Amino acid sequence: MNFNRNDKCWCGSGVKYKKCHLEFDEKLMELEAKGYIIPSRDIIKNQEQIEGIKKSSAINNGALDVVERSIKEGMSTEEVNKIVHEYTVAQGGIPAPLNYEGFPKSVCTSINDEVCHGIPSEDIILKSGDIINVDVSTICNGYYSDASRMFMIGDVSEEAKKLVEVTKECLYKGIEAAKPWGFLGDIGAVIQEHAEKHGYSVVRDFGGHGVGVEFHEDPFVYHYGKKGEGMVLVPGMIFTIEPMINQGGYGLFIDADNDWTAVTEDCSLSAQWEHTVLITEDGVEILAK
Ligand code: MF3
Ligand code: CO
User: Is residue 17 situated within a structural domain?
Assistant: First the structure.
């Protein structure tokens, strides 16, 4: 699509195209001609969308903060679900997981060898030594945000602590590697390097994703790969980085009882941390954490 230089820019800024995204489009077209994968215009957020996603993220962060303050031994994962649901609704948001492709609850709670998509239940009681991922996603005025944190319940083994710690480091190394005019592969490469250095493996079957106007948008964010490969990153892209790191192999299976929960094939522990990030003109901004 070509725009007249004096027309208003496609991004909705109200500014003339020549003074807004013209140079940006030319740079992308050049990269595309050289064979690079470039993002389509519909995944580049404008100011209004960014503001909306930030508001959604603020609710999402608040929900995780409440969980962080209250989660403890003896609590059921259904109670965690209730905390997230009630807080989100009270703040004017909608829990994005609820009824998403049939998901029955408002949050994912994944314990020990569960990789992701654990379903809260009154029958699942947190016990000392458990590590749990609480994955919260929020819709506010139609805008989506997504983040997850790990929590350690009571006395946790040194090896479990180490896994949780290294997985968080993987996330932050991935965020540091995310730069405008860099590549998606830069993120996956550093995550994979750090995880494997510790003898862990990176889950292949799930990845991060574009987020904001929908729950899951392009691109698929690999947590493994090679520097300089994959989609070019540009200002205005918003996506999650959410490495799932296993103590053993990366193989997993989906629990046949609920068709949702991913569990490690070798019963080894799995951890995950997730943030929603925005690529800016000069770096990266964390929105949901
Ligand atoms: N928060 C998860 C993600 O990172 C989404 C899980 S979909 C659900 O993509 F339905 F299980 F919630
Ligand atoms: Co996500």
Answer: no
Supply the pLDDT for residue 2: 66
Report the C-alpha gap between 208 and 237 in whole angstroms: 13
CA of 243 to the centre of ligand 2 (A): 10
Tally the residues of the chain.
289
- The boundaries of the domain holding residue 171 are 46-288
Report whether 175 contacts 221 (CB < 8 A).
Answer: no
Ligand 1: which of 88, 98, 101, 117 to mutate, most ligand atoms within 8 Å of CB? Answer: 117
Is 117 annotated to bind a ligand? Reply is yes
Residue ranges of the chain with per-residue pLDDT less than 70: 1-2
Q: Is residue 22 part of a domain?
A: no
Q: Which residue's CA is the closest to the ligand 1 atom numbered 7?
A: 97
- What pLDDT, on the 0 to 100 scale, is given for residue 155? 98
DSSP string, 165-186: HHHHHHHHHHHHH--TTSBHHH
Residue 29 falls within a domain, yes or no?
A: no
- State whether the beta carbon of 242 lies less than 6 angstroms from ligand 1: yes
Please name the residues in contact with 69: beta carbons below 8 A apart, sequence gap of 6 or more.
none
